[in-house]
Structures are given as structure tokens and as C-alpha cells.
Specification:
- The protein has helices at 2-27, 100-114, 117-122, 124-133, 168-179, 186-192; strands at 32-34, 37-39, 42-45, 48-60, 64-74, 88-94, 142-148, 152-157, 160-165.
- Strands 3-4-5-6-7-8-9 form a seven-stranded antiparallel sheet. The protein has a two-stranded antiparallel sheet with strand order 1-2.
- The chain is globular, with a radius of gyration of 22 Å.
- Helix content is 39%, strand content 31%.
- The protein is α+β, with helices and mostly antiparallel strands.
- The chain has six helices and nine strands, in the order αββββββαααβββαα.
Length: 196
């Protein structure tokens, strides 16, 4: 019995030492890799910590990878409430060149399809400001849209802040392009919401 007790004590001691040495490394969050893109597990937006909710690939015609994307939400928020007035971040990594006019056409078409004329008129200026911020994207470029209630939607391209566009109504319409009832790509939406 004494031999067994000594063995158990030695085992527990070694396990404890192993844990002390290796647990901090294991606990460190690693980047998430999607295709050729990598995304951090968390993002600090103002005074709010956002965590990675889901990642996915946006595909043209269902087969051509255009960009990889990641959706960040506050801890404890249900992904189904993503269009509510809560902090959120959509970050994309381009896997092929995309001209600026493609974004403009897609935004205008989506807004017209999903908003009634009165709502569209209310956020017309924000849409025009948003569209003017886009430039031609190349492989490896990164664009992020981060919404902070009361402040607006920040557009950052390759680490450079382009502008902050105010308005919760505009933010809801903008994020609905990917996450609303009529998204640009249903599979991409499901992946971002963690449903795939």
C-alpha cells in the first residue's frame, strides 16, 4: 500500500509540475486560420472585448473564393442578435483582387433590395460616404468594419482608419448585407454565425 501511495503522490506531483509548465502555453489563444487567412481569437473594440464567433469563405458562384471572413461579437451575446444595436466586427482577408466598383454596385443593389424607399433615403448620405471609402483590393489586403453603439461604424483597411460612419440604422443595413434575411451568400452567413 505504501508503494502505491508513493506512486500516486509522485504521479500527482509530476502532473502538477507538468501543468505549471505547459498549461500557460496551452491556455494562450491561437490564431484561427481560414484558407490563407489568419484571424485573432479576440479583438478589443473601444472598451468592449469581442470574441471570434465564426469564420467562413465568401465564394463567387459558389466555387471561387473571394475572401475569408471573421465575425466578432461581445462575450455572452447570441449570434442571432447580431443585427441589434451591439458592438460587432466583420473582418475580411482578400484571396483575390476585387475592384472598388464591385463593392459599390453590390452595396447599392443590396440596400435597394432590402430596404424600403423611406429607410433608404434616411441613410443615403451614409451609404454614399461608405461607398467612397472603398479602393481596389488585392490579394492579402484586409478590411474590417467595426461597429460601436453611439460612435458608429469604423472602416479600417490594412490597419488604416478610413472613416467612422455614424448611425445605428446604417450599421444594421450594412451588416445585413452579410448577416440579414437576404444575405449576399447564405453559406457565408451561416459560417459567420457559427451554424456550419
Amino acid at each position: 500500500m505504501d508503494g502505491k501511495k508513493r506512486f500516486v503522490k509522485a504521479y500527482v506531483l509530476l502532473a502538477g509540475l507538468f501543468g505549471l509548465i505547459y498549461l500557460p502555453q496551452a491556455a494562450q489563444a491561437k490564431q484561427i486560420v481560414v484558407g490563407k487567412a489568419n484571424f485573432e481569437p479576440t479583438y478589443q473594440a473601444s472598451d468592449v472585448r469581442l470574441s471570434l464567433n465564426g469564420t467562413g469563405l465568401m465564394r463567387y458562384l459558389g466555387i471561387i473564393n473571394v475572401y475569408a471572413g471573421a465575425l466578432y461579437l461581445p462575450d455572452g451575446n447570441d449570434a442571432q442578435d447580431v443585427l441589434d444595436d451591439i458592438p460587432k466586427r466583420l473582418e475580411v482577408f482578400f484571396l483575390r483582387p476585387v475592384p472598388a466598383e464591385v463593392f459599390t454596385k453590390a452595396t447599392n443593389a443590396h440596400m435597394q433590395e432590402n430596404l424600403d424607399p423611406v429607410s433608404l433615403e434616411r441613410i443615403k448620405d451614409q451609404i454614399e460616404t461608405h461607398n467612397a471609402l472603398y479602393t481596389d483590393m488585392s490579394f492579402g489586403d484586409r478590411c474590417a468594419l467595426t461597429y460601436i453603439p453611439g460612435a458608429g461604424t469604423q472602416m479600417v483597411v490594412n490597419g488604416e482608419l478610413r472613416a467612422t460612419i455614424p448611425g445605428a440604422e446604417f450599421a444594421r443595413a450594412l451588416y445585413a448585407m452579410w448577416l440579414g434575411a437576404r444575405p449576399l451568400d447564405k453559406a457565408f452567413k451561416s459560417s459567420l454565425l457559427g451554424q456550419r
